[in-house]
Each structure stands twice: as structure tokens, then as C-alpha cells.
Design a protein that fits this description.
By secondary structure, this protein is an all-alpha fold. The chain contains five helices and no strands.
Length: about 100
């Protein structure tokens, strides 16, 4: 059995997991994590680019949260989390700097 036969085949039967050799299970864990990280990086980049372009407003959505909620069928909370993860707000850091500067004067 190869590392791709069960974990990476979307319609693989769950009954096959007990038959998987330990080494193949370990390889499957590593390969699945590697692919998950690639997909996460691709999603972050796509969300960041959509946010940078202002794509949501261009196609009739109020904001990127609404776009992602509708397009990806995720909650608004999850959409906000993805946006923050993909394109952290610089102003949060600048507010902290402003507070430090104000306290120092």
C-alpha cells in the first residue's frame, strides 16, 4: 500500500486505515501535513490578494468578510480570521507605537 492510497484519495474507504502499515501511516501523516501547509499558504496568498485589490467591493460585496462568507460558505468569524491571518493590519502595531510615544512625552 502506498502513502497516497488512503489518506490522499478523497473517496478512499475508512475501513482501509487499520490495514495500513505503520511506516505508511507515518509517511501519510507527513505528506498530508505538507500538502495542508501548501494549501494554507495558497489560501493566505489568495485572501491577501483579494483584500489588496478590494475585490469584494468591485464585485458587489460590502467587504472581504462578506465575499468569503458567501463564496466559501464559512462563518463571518472564520472569514475575519482568515483575512487577519493573510493580511495583518499594520495599524494595530502603529497604535501601540503611538501609545508608547505618547506615554514617553
Amino acid at each position: 500500500m502506498t502513502i497516497h492510497s488512503i489518506a490522499l484519495a478523497p473517496d478512499a474507504p475508512a475501513a482501509g486505515w487499520p490495514d495500513l502499515a505503520d511506516v505508511d501511516l507515518l509517511r501519510t501523516l507527513v505528506e498530508t501535513e505538507r500538502r495542508r501547509r501548501r494549501l494554507d499558504a495558497a489560501m493566505r496568498a489568495a485572501v491577501a490578494e483579494a483584500e489588496r485589490r478590494g475585490l469584494a467591493a468591485d464585485i458587489g460585496y460590502r467587504d472581504t468578510v462578506e465575499l468569503l462568507t458567501d463564496l466559501l460558505r464559512i462563518s463571518a468569524h472564520e472569514a475575519r480570521r482568515r483575512i487577519e491571518y493573510a493580511a495583518p493590519q499594520v495599524r494595530i502595531r502603529s497604535r501601540k507605537v503611538w501609545r508608547v510615544l505618547a506615554a514617553a512625552s
